[in-house]
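Figure 2 data, in text form.
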Amino acid sequence: MTQFFRDCGVADWRMIEIGMPEWEGIYDSILPDKAEARRVLGLSDKFTIFYGTTWGQTTSLRSTFEIEFQETLNAVFAFTKEQQANLIIAMHPNEVPQMEQVYAEQMKQQNVNGIVTRQHIVYTLRAADVVIEHGPSN
């Protein structure tokens, strides 16, 4: 990220890299391999897609975020079925708890195998063959 700001003309003395402490476990832990991560998560050993949701700020003038979120989820479901894959829906930490049930019900309706979680990020990322992240809403 600092390179981006350098390219924009920000002097090095004005930047301090602090990292992301909540992610440091990914770098200094003994990580599970793909097969172990899938076993722990209860997923079959087939192509696995990780979909990271986003927290929706639905108060802007644009105000079509709910439609955008659903269209994105529908595209992920279609891709998952096309690939005959597992799907991991990793919820954004700020999403309301009720969304876990919404995602699970939609997965069932779409006949998509997988899990919905907001935990176990190391295992979910290690289990994945593809990572899809929904961009920020604001």
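Caption note: The chain has six helices and four strands.
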